[in-house]
Give the backbone structure.
Amino acid sequence: MISIRRRLLVWLLSVLLFACALVGAMTYFEARDEVNELSDRQLRQVALSLRHQEVFLPAASGGGLGGEEEDDLVVQVWDRAGTLVYASRPGIPLPRDIRPGLRTVSGKEGRFRLFVLTEPVRTIQVAQPLSARREISAGIAFRLLAPSLALIPVLGILIWIAVGRGLRPLAQVASAIEQRSPSAMEPLPERDLPGEIVPLVKELNDLLARLSHAMEAQRRFIADAAHELRTPLSAVDLQSQIVERSETEGEKAEAFARLKGGICRANRLVQQLLTMARLEPGAAPYRPVRIDLADLLRNMVAEWSPAAAEKGIDLGLTRADPAEIEGDEEYLRVLVGNLIDNAIRYTPEGGRVDVGMKGDETGVRIVVEDNGPGIPGPERARVFERFHRCEGTVVPGSGLGLSIVKTVAERTGGRVSLEAGRDGKGLRATVRFSA
């Protein structure tokens, strides 16, 4: 597992080391310039101090000049004839140069900084290896940086402690979450937290709020489902007892018919509950494809025609403009199927249910209209709630059909609305999909 504390320590120490290296390089180059300037001045002063020297020991002897020259300086004196009359370090030959002034030359022993003093009777050359100057510059830079380098371990410990204290609120938030029970959905405190952690805590509180809402909806759904299932199951149990007590064939046939109806109602409720469960976010994958709505409506009308014919209801497709939308075909079949089923259930025998689709540049509208009792205006918003049924309704049902329609419509990017049908009678359900 990657540790933020360790990562910050590595990065901060890396930055410090890079800064030290950069400062060291700058110090070295600055010291080198100063050393070069001072050393050039020293070469000139040594040469000038020898201009009045009358006696020099032979060159081969390597004798000194009374300790006037430094160990890293090379002094050579040439007479008017071009003969080397003195060399402080015979083992380091330098090319003779009669041009006065400072310059850099190369020899067998490396590169040298050379000062030449030309006089009528002699030429004096004083040189210094550039390697000696680099050693002096490096020594100065190291002595200046040594205290900073020595402080890096101390800084590492201080950074480790400081980062740990800075991350302590995050550890406290993690500990508070770890100690919570699975059912505890209260928001985490946001006071006295660093500004960098407040957005995280706010997002966690939003997540807890959504989880609380989802769990409450699930508990309510389970309680409502259990309550709704109890009624048809109790009816099935009662009808089975009646079948057992039936004595004549007629009584048994009537009891079996009622038992079959109760089983059908219970089966329908279970199917709708399963549909609602599949529509929950994340419960099933959403696979959008291009769908021919006209073809889908024709298939759905054909599929529900037998149920409509059984009640003597005229079910037909009044209009189907060519249109395609992006969506999940199974979800759209559920949407249209529930609208048609709901219309057939509440339309009396001999009634009419019209299904149509209109498409234009603004989008597509699917319309299912019946001439049944309709839904009163104040109730039209509430019928989309789960298990809600209008007061005084005698038609068997679970109160889930329109709730499923609304859920599917929203998930597929649509919007469902209810209004009165023709002449203020019946119900017109419209699902709009924007272009």
About this structure: The two ends are 48 Å apart (CA to CA). DSSP finds eight helices and twelve strands in the chain.
